[in-house]
Amino acid sequence: MKHQKLAIFDWNGTLLADTRHAWLASNKCLELYGVEPITFKRQLETFDFPIIHYYKNNGCSVDKVLETKEHANEIFQSSYDALAANARTRRGARELLDWLTQNNVDCIILSNYLTNKIEHHLERLKIRHYFSYISANNCDGTSILNSTNKLERISAFMTKRGYLPNNAFIIGDSKEEPDIGRHMGITSIGITGGCINERRLRAAQPDHVINALPETIEILKDKWTL
Question: Does the domain formed by 5-17+89-224 have CATH 3.40.50.1000?
């Protein structure tokens, strides 16, 4: 794997166009905690990982959130599943995935979401064949309330498979990807139009900021002289 290239994709809001669905489902959880529904603008200003910070940012009692996390998760998952049942990929996703495949770049998904639900959407959207590996969560969804472990998972994966940092890039719509990029020494690409607003995305200092997935192609042509 010494010279093999690796593309690391976030899922929600990066490949799947589901940000508004997640916002509406999140409002159902806020209602549980006695908080009025927030606007989409407020969603992009306050969403964060771990999710406990999002609830705190919107005036929820941290103690109550922790006490009722299973119930809130059930509310979110059932609402989100219904809303996102027919969600599409983001514009240009297949164009980028086709180009990466043609250039022998391995593609994987690194997500805080649930493995079985990602698999379902990949099959539904007929894009499962692009991905050699999916690293996500196999619990009920409550684990990301207090912490996330994407950095540990991708570090272990790259070490085990022998991928080198200069042959990899990570792309996502949150502050996590730039942070992982800095820790791992890999190129990070932030995409706008996802779970946080552009100001917050740029403040996270990814190596590159794009508005549409196919813009990644020119970045990689320059990085890897493809």
Answer: yes
DSSP 8-state symbol, 30: H
Entry pTM: 0.95
pLDDT of 118 above 80: yes
Specify the long-range contacts of residues 64-69, CB closer than 8 Å, at least 24 apart: 64/33, 65/33, 65/145, 66/145, 68/32, 68/33, 69/142, 69/145
Closest residue by Cα to residue 186 from 212, 160, 206: 206
Strand partners of residue 23 = none
| Domain assignments of the chain as residue spans, ordered by start | 5-17+89-224, 19-83
Summarised one tens digit per residue, pLDDT across range 162-180 is 999 999 999 999 999 999 9
Q: Mention every residue, 6+ apart, whose C-beta is less than 8 A from residue 126.
A: none
Token pair 């770049």 is found at 105
| Residue 95 DSSP label | H
